Amino acid sequence: MNKGNRIRRIRIKKGIYILPNLFTTASLFMGFYSIIASIQEKFYLAAIAILVSMVFDGLDGRIARMTNTTSKFGAEYDSLSDLIAFGLAPALLAYIWAMSSYGKLGWMAGFLFVACGALRLARYNIQIGLIDSRFFNGLPIPAAAAVVATMVIFFDHIGVEGTFHHPGILILVALLSLLMVSNVKYYSGKDMKLFARTPFVTFLVVIGVLLVIIYAPEVMVFIIMLGYAISGPVWWVFKLIRWFAGRKSDTDSDSK
Length: 256
Description:
The protein has helices at about 5-10, 20-40, 45-65, 70-100, 105-125, 140-155, 165-180, 200-215, 215-255, and strands at about 135, 185. It is mainly α. It has a two-stranded antiparallel ribbon. The mean pLDDT is about 85.
């Protein structure tokens, strides 16, 4: 292969796909707006912006796959956008809202969240296609950001106005950070068949859950996101107990 052909083969294609990257840009914009709102101490709006950013982030990949416009550029741009919207924005929100009074511990916890989020995204990108797509390896960064955002909305709903300095928030942010870079498995939901036939009772359960969420969204969404964050460690403990039980059973069988 001559030099000219080699250059043509490695030349980066000019142009990008507009539609999926437009949604990624919208997600990035909402993350940036959340940062501005946090600085202005508009914590409720900052939290809402993070959740809206999650909606756009969920749409860009699906639209790219549906329209066959996936690209390496889009994947890299999405990761950078996620770091801003789900790493920096919630960390700053948590710091100004609840951790700034703790001095170095406060901003260190915020930085830990950003750093672990960046590491989580980098690890996710290199593990695509290498691990079971039904599970996430570590807490996804959008889920960690959603816990912070829905927590702010929940406390606003129960009457907490302005800042809420409590050591429990600092501990929670640190735990979310560590869960992101852990090897704890989380269900991804990618094997769910939404367009397949399901039992009638399952459909009724889904309707019931939606009605409960609609009745008290500020409370239920926070419970759901916190429950998802806890589900990984609970699942890990359950598997560990089963492993010990199985090992004990094998030991008892060998001793007979």
